[in-house]
Amino acid sequence: MLARFPVSVRLLRGLALASIIANVGIVVTGGAVRLTASGLGCPTWPRCTDASYVATSEMGVHGAIEFGNRLLTFAVGIIAFATVLAVLAHRPRRRGLLPLAVAVFFGIPAQAVVGGITVLTNLNPWVVGLHFLASMAVIAAAYALWRRTTDPDGPAVPVVPAPLRALTQLTTAVGVAVLVVGTWVTGSGPHAGDAGAARNGLDPEAISQVHADGVFLLIGLSVALVFAFRAVGATRAARAAVLLLAVELGQGVVGFVQYFTHLPAVLVGAHMFGSCLVLLATLHVQWATRERQPVAPAPLATPAPEAVPAPA
Fold it and tell me: Which helix (H) or strand (E) holds 291?
């Protein structure tokens, strides 16, 4: 039935991009829930209260904020489901797209379940951090899908030497570590999502220093990538590394300002948004280090030689 409604590459790519934007948006709105102390605005899950699936007027603004964020999860899921249908309807069928589209689609309810566990555990800071990291994983899958919509289906061929690919992988690993430690910093800080929520017990100043050290290392590695890519003439990869460095510097400025201004909610929210941008810029560098080749056409069958009659 889906074959009756062919989907263009442009529409498919647009839906994949919308999925990235929607998943980044749910991170930002989830941050708003925590930063407005609305994390337990709906005190249970999957219901909002023991007697209602929706917020009631008695729950006030915190209930409305928390329930609104839950509703946005359905919108993100609808976009992801539409993307799966578009992948199935696209002709010719593209191998590699469907697993990514399905991963994004099922990642959203999985992330919602983790969000529900955060509520049921009264905003346990470790579970809250896992909730954020689960969103990062879905964003990474959505980005991969978006890039694959226009990539050929042939093998990926490196465009930079092996040592620079290793340096890129190291930079990515450090970036992921910075994200993880960032959730520890958040779990030790004042924005718990609710006045009665526990903190993770880490010393805020000490863990913030560890996080800052990781950021300095990440920036140093990114600077190395810029010069290394330029040295080997990898222009596209060098531009991607410059973009990554610019995003990291901007994120670093926001991080330092929020720390020295005692973590105002607006800057903390901006820092969460910046974390999504750092992830996307890192993935952009990864994609710039290789190119996919078109699928080689199948060789034409060689006609069998005609039989020569034996001499009489």
Answer: strand 290-292
Taking only the tens place, the pLDDT of each residue in 43-79 is 899 889 888 889 888 888 999 999 999 999 999 999 9
Check residue 307 and give its pLDDT.
57
Conformational region of residue 57, where left means phi above 0, alpha means psi within -120 to 50, and beta covers everything else = alpha
- Alpha-carbon distance of 71 to 236, in angstroms, equals 40
Note whether 256 and 274 are within 8 A (CB). no
Peptide bond into 92 cis (omega under 30): yes
CA distance 206 to 147: 39
Please answer whether residues 1 and 54 qualify as being in contact, where contact means their C-beta atoms are separated by less than 8 angstroms.
no
User: Around Cβ 234, how many Cβ atoms within 10 Å?
Assistant: 20
Q: What residue segments make up the domains of the chain, in order of their start?
A: 1-153, 157-292
262: left (phi over 0), alpha (psi -120 to 50) or beta: left
pTM score of the predicted model:
0.90
Cα(145)–Cα(151) distance, integer angstroms: 10
